[in-house]
Specification:
Number of domains of chain A: 4
Helix content of chain B: 40-55%
Largest interface: A-B, 29 and 23 residues
Radius of gyration of chain A: 38 Å
CATH class of chain B: Mainly Alpha
Mean pLDDT of chain A: 78
Strand content of chain A: 5-15%
Helix content of chain A: 40-55%
Strand order of the largest sheet of chain B: 1-2
CATH superfamily of chain B: Winged helix-like DNA-binding domain superfamily/Winged helix DNA-binding domain
Distance between the termini of chain B: 40 Å
Number of strands of chain B: 2
Number of strands of chain A: 24
Strand content of chain B: 5-15%
Mean pLDDT of chain B: 82
Low-confidence stretches of chain A: 72-89, 483-490
Oligomer: heterodimer
Shape of chain A: globular
CATH topology of chain B: Arc Repressor Mutant, subunit A
Shape of chain B: globular
Number of helices of chain B: 5
Low-confidence stretches of chain B: 1-6
Structural class of chain B: mainly alpha
Largest sheet of chain A: 13 strands, mixed
Structural class of chain A: alpha+beta
Radius of gyration of chain B: 17 Å
């Protein structure tokens, strides 16, 4: 007994003992300690007494810890009964964890399915969403992107126009101009190669609000004539050049001239596309009317892109007055500004919405799945729960046990899911054509954990259901009775049924979406691009920009014979632009003898003599280019069908004269079939083709085409062509090598990439759905095994048992599919902008999705059905 | 009975043995703190209450001691330990084993030198 008035034990000592001692002996020990402490206080003084108390506390810790652990670990109960309600949580938790572990081990199928469902749901969605986000170019590499916009007439502002407006752009704080400027990079001791880059005005980085990693960005004056040529490198290019921090201030040979590296951008920065690796300040000239610039600006503080109508009209009229232009190029037509995200990322909203929706659906399926699996367990445990309750377990303890089991499943699934997310992400990044975007790809762990938590929350909630059922006063007797009769009088399984229906509905939704995209991509692929894509090698090359047009022409024409001589090559050609890569150059057209034609432009292509044979474009009328067409001979042109139809309706165009450069003009010698000169899905555009020899300007970029008879030998041919070009020409640098097939795949576009992801998601949904059907039907069969035993004993043939069980599974899937179709009809509209040649309500895609689901559902139901048909009546009835 | 054919031959660790003996010595008053005090006063070593309880628990789990509560319902109610028949046998066996080992051992010369 503690004498009143004696000083108490030090508080921490009391805390330690309270924590480590079970409630049964806590008060006793503390009061004894207090007595002893008081005795020592009087005998030895307060110092010694306190020392003793601390020694007792700290010295007791190992033994008491060990005891708690040991008891919890063995689950052994001494008669002291510290396991009864209200005992220390720590021990009961360990016991329950061990029990949950043993339960999972003894039910490997259930454990595997639950863990796999959660892992696939969370890991899969995290991996796919991370890739999707990368594909959708998030985030934009600029500060306060809502202030940044791109002016109309993109890609066709001239230096003169920009410089005229430069002193003041109404409505904007800053405006920058840029144009494509891929440049050859020469490193001492290394092969010359091409670096994708852009030429920019000095304001660019200020407009973007993007600080450099090293050095500086451009400053006023860098783009004036006579300024030292400056360049800013991307992080990845800097890394490739050795990652030396002292690179700032050093010269680099870019585009055949020496440029000073003034800065390096941080990793992850890209503009205007992730492929760009160098930004070059170029001198701007007020006399240059060449118009290839795009203008990007940041609005003044306090104003917004949306209400710039007035300032834009002011810009338009200022340009229009100073630089009069033909109607087609009059910038006053429709002044507008495109928000940065829309312009640089393009209209990816449908893709994003589709991916996000698919992800949400997958997660819901996973949740429903885990929930139905847990529910199955709940019924199986009714007897156990009733016995536990009868033996004195209280609610808290019952629920704790159930929750701990789901948490254990969650922990296992977390580990498996994290591994799955990482592996899946790596595989996706490797296998998808991400190109330079792969550098920006990061696995999104937030999504992973959010998905994990959502699925786990569903599992925990569901696991509490039996505990709640027990609260609701279903007595031991009734629970036992229900279990004995094999569940016939028990819960009807409506909740599980409902969950499967929901899962199936969502799986149908996903499969339908994926089906639509697959059909749409198939439609795109079915379009005839007008060229023979198989066995065609595409080599993009570039020349130093300082070369004159004649030198460039020479470089191109001189390298072709050597390439033609390579083994396996049947035809060789060069062109400044190949089909399926956007509209490219459009030049004004006049037709001699038709002065009343309105101003118009058509696609204009510079080609070499064998261009049409190489691409496989058939000649429809007249003749092809032949050796008699030389630089000195009269200029000739070949037109396509669309041009003939538009400018010479009902006439024979062969022999007529087009005037592109001067009055002398060029004679039409032939008509070829249409090819996809712009994009795959546009109707054929009018196009005309002239020989390099007959066109005054020659761009510094050229595409060389090799036709080979053996498509298997393409990789070897690419390597041989690359080394041949390197050997034969000192001016040409190979930029990239590809095949016409890849160009075609690229032209199929975003839908083609998203279709891969959506297809994966739909596959995931199918697997999860099948797991759900299997789990529910399997549980249904287990609960009714007595029922089946009796039926079989009474003579029902096993085949009918199988039919009944599978019928139930298929019934659930059918209801789910019906709901799914309704949902799909409502939801797939968001996909319509990604679809080509197919309605969002395409019956084939929907029917295909349903058929697939029914098949998978039937398969998943068949396994437990077969088990039911094999029920041994004697064994079941004896239970 | 030949050694080795005894049923349930249990040998006690030294702390176990000491705690059990202290339980026997304190008889009716064999609760945790008293056992600890007894050990301390006889052996002259500091013993922590935690290790006493842990040892008593372990002995109880092995069935060598048993515990019961004194009647009072408040904090003065104590868990009192007593050794069981098996506990007494284990103590005897432990002692006999040790004495067999001591047979013929003369340490006189070693301690003298």
């Amino acid at each position: 007994m503690r004498p009143s008035g004696s000083p108490p034990l030090p508080a921490p000592v009391v805390v330690i003992f309270r924590t480590l001692l079970p409630i049964a002996e806590r008060e006793e020990v503390l009061s004894d300690l207090q007595d002893e402490f008081a005795r020592r206080l009087t005998l030895d003084g307060p110092r010694a007494a306190r020392r003793w108390a601390w020694q007792q506390a700290i010295g007791s810790m190992p033994a008491l810890f060990q005891r708690s652990w040991w008891r919890g670990m063995t689950g052994f109960e001494p008669r002291a009964n510290r396991m009864r309600p209200g005992g220390p949580m720590f021990e009961s938790w360990i016991m329950d964890f061990r029990y949950a572990g043993r339960r999972l081990l003894s039910r490997p199928t259930y454990a595997l399915l639950a863990v796999l469902t959660l892992a696939l749901g969370a890991g899969g969605t995290a991996a796919i969403f991370s890739v999707a986000r990368t594909l959708l170019l998030d985030p934009l590499p600029m500060a306060r992107e809502e202030q940044v916009g791109v002016l109309w007439f993109t890609g066709s502002w001239s230096e003169a126009e920009f410089l005229h407006l430069r002193p003041e752009f109404p409505g904007f704080q800053r405006m920058a101009a840029y144009r494509p400027d891929d440049a050859t990079l020469e490193v001492p001791g290394g092969a010359m190669r091409l670096v994708p880059g852009i030429a920019v005005s000095a304001e660019l980085f200020d407009v973007l609000g993007a600080p450099p990693l090293l050095g500086r960005t451009f400053q006023a004056g860098d783009d004036l004539a006579g300024a030292e040529p400056a360049t800013v490198l991307s992080y990845s290019l800097w890394q490739e050049l050795g990652g030396d921090r002292t690179i700032v201030g050093k010269p680099l040979r870019l585009g055949g001239t020496s440029r000073t590296v003034v800065g390096v951008m941080p990793p992850g920065f890209w503009f205007p596309s992730p492929a760009i690796r160098a930004w070059n300040a170029v001198p701007l000239s007020a006399r240059s009317n060449s118009g290839r610039y795009t203008l990007v600006g940041r609005v003044a503080d306090g104003s917004a892109l949306a209400n710039l109508d007035g300032p834009l009209r002011a810009i338009a009229s200022a340009v229009g007055e100073r630089f009069p232009a033909p109607a087609a190029w009059d910038k006053r037509k429709a002044p507008a500004v495109a928000p940065a995200r829309e312009f640089f990322v393009g209209d990816v909203r449908p893709s994003l919405v589709a991916t996000l929706a698919a992800m949400g659906v997958i997660l819901l399926i996973a949740c429903a799945n885990v929930a139905s699996l847990m529910l199955g367990q709940v019924d199986a445990r009714a007897t156990e729960m009733a016995v536990r309750a009868a033996l004195g377990a209280n609610r808290q303890r019952l629920i704790q046990q159930l929750v701990l089991e789901s948490i254990l499943v969650g922990v296992l699934a977390g580990a498996a899911g994290a591994a799955l997310a990482m592996i899946g992400f790596e595989v996706l990044v490797q296998s998808l054509p991400l190109g330079e975007l792969a550098e920006n790809a990061r696995l999104d762990w937030t999504v992973f954990w959010a998905a994990m938590l959502a699925a786990l929350a569903a599992a925990v909630l569901i696991s509490i259901v039996p505990g709640v059922a027990l609260w609701r006063g279903s007595s031991l007797q009734s629970t036992m009775a229900t279990t004995r009769t094999g569940g016939i009088a028990g819960r009807g399984g409506r909740l599980e049924g409902g969950l499967v229906i929901v899962q199936m509905a969502m799986a149908v939704l996903l499969a339908a979406g994926a089906g639509l995209l697959i059909r749409s991509v198939a439609n795109l692929r079915a379009i005839d691009p007008g060229v023979e894509t198989r066995g065609l090698v595409v080599i993009d090359a570039t020349m130093p920009t300082r070369l004159a047009a004649a030198e460039r022409r020479r470089a191109i024409l001189d390298v072709l014979p050597a390439l033609r001589a390579l083994p396996g090559v049947t035809a060789v050609a060069a062109a400044q632009k190949v089909p399926l890569r956007g509209s490219g150059d459009n030049w004004g057209i006049r037709v001699r003898g038709k002065p009343d034609l309105p101003d118009a432009t058509t696609a204009f292509r510079m080609v070499t003599r064998d261009y049409f044979q190489t691409l496989g474009m058939p000649l429809l009328a007249g003749r092809n280019f032949d050796p008699s067409d030389r630089e000195s001979s009269g200029r000739v042109v070949i037109i396509n069908q669309a041009l003939a139809a538009r400018f010479f309706p009902g006439e024979d165009p062969v022999g007529r004269v087009l005037q592109t450069f001067d009055d002398q003009g060029e004679r039409i010698i032939g008509v070829v079939a249409d090819a996809a000169e712009a994009t795959l899905t546009d109707p054929p555009v009018p196009a005309r083709y002239m020989l390099y020899e007959h066109v005054p300007p020659v761009w510094h970029q050229v595409t060389i085409l090799l036709r080979t008879g053996s498509p298997d030998g393409i990789p070897a041919l690419l390597a041989a062509a690359r080394s041949t070009i390197q050997r034969e020409s000192s001016q040409l640098a190979v930029q990239q090598t590809t095949t016409m097939q890849s160009v075609f795949d690229l032209a199929v576009g975003a839908a083609g990439q998203i279709v891969t992801l959506l297809g994966l998601l739909a596959g995931l949904a199918l697997v999860l759905g099948a797991v759900g059907v299997y789990g529910v039907i399997s549980h249904y069969v287990t609960r009714r095994s007595r029922d089946y035993g009796i039926r079989i004993a009474l003579g029902q043939p096993p085949g009918r048992v199988v039919r009944q069980v599978v019928g139930r599974g298929v019934g659930l899937v059918a209801i789910g599919s019906a709901l799914g179709i309704v949902a799909a009809l409502a939801v797939t509209k968001v996909l319509s902008s990604l679809l080509y040649g197919i309605e969002a309500t395409d019956p084939v895609a929907l029917a295909g999705a349903v058929a697939l689901l029914l098949f998978v559902g039937m398969l998943a139901a068949f396994v437990p059905a077969r088990r039911a048909s094999l029920t041994d009546p004697a064994r079941v009835l004896r239970q | 009975m030949k050694p080795g054919s005894e049923p349930q031959r249990v040998l006690l660790g030294s702390l176990e043995e000491q705690v059990m003996l202290a339980v026997v010595r304190t008889a009716d008053e064999a609760y945790g703190m008293n056992v600890r005090r007894e050990l301390e006063s006889v052996t002259g070593r500091e013993v922590t209450i935690g290790s006493v309880y842990a040892t008593l628990d372990r002995l109880e789990a092995k069935g060598l001691v048993a515990s019961s509560r004194t009647a009072a319902a408040d904090a003065t109610s104590r868990r009192v330990f007593a050794i069981t028949g098996a506990g007494a046998r284990a103590l005897t066996q432990t002692r006999m084993t040790r004495e067999r080992l001591w047979l013929g051992v003369k340490l006189q010369r070693l301690t003298d030198s």
